[in-house]
Amino acid sequence: MTTAEVNGRPRDLPEDGRCLADWIRDDLGLTGTKIPCGSGHCGGCSVLLDGRPVLSCSTPAVVHEDGRITTVEGLAARQDPLLRSFVEHGAAQCGYCTAGMLVAARAYLDECGGAAPDEAGARRALSGNVCRCTGYTAIVAAVLAAGRECSGA
């Protein structure tokens, strides 16, 4: 049996060809990862794989042996400042895009390496995530505020 690390815990990968999203939701019970479009076009299903966002609805789970996967539950468990910032800025509306936005934002802030993020970079990092409820202003503000908090800027 092959394994991957999910939110810090080793987990057996499925051998039946299912996508990451189905395995994460159905087998692991981590339902924070949503599958809004099911075709890899909206970014709502994004999870971090070795620190980079991937579309879990169109990525086979079996190919990620020894990978490190972080879901929105993993961000919550470590009390990532992004979650609080999203709440404080009213960045979450219906919730379908929120998990994908959070993991994409986390990857961007990690890429900043402690430097303060900028609006253009935040918008670029979130460009693969579709939100039908907001104008992205609150989401970008939340990412920038969390980035400033993390960088001390």
From TrEMBL:
UniProt keyword Iron-sulfur, yes or no: yes
2Fe-2S ferredoxin-type domain span: 1-75
Gene Ontology terms, MF aspect: 2 iron, 2 sulfur cluster binding; metal ion binding; oxidoreductase activity
Keywords recorded for this protein, A-Z: 2Fe-2S, Iron, Iron-sulfur, Metal-binding, Oxidoreductase
UniProt keyword annotation of Transferase present: no
Family annotation (Pfam families): Fer2_2
Classification via InterPro entries: 2Fe-2S-bd, 2Fe-2S-bd_dom_sf, 2Fe-2S_ferredoxin-like_sf, 2Fe-2S_ferredoxin-type, 2Fe2S_fd_BS, Beta-grasp_dom_sf, Diverse_Oxidoreductases
PANTHER family: OXIDOREDUCTASE WITH IRON-SULFUR SUBUNIT, XANTHINE DEHYDROGENASE IRON-SULFUR-BINDING SUBUNIT XDHC-RELATED
Name of the protein: Carbon-monoxide dehydrogenase small subunit
Organism: Actinokineospora auranticolor
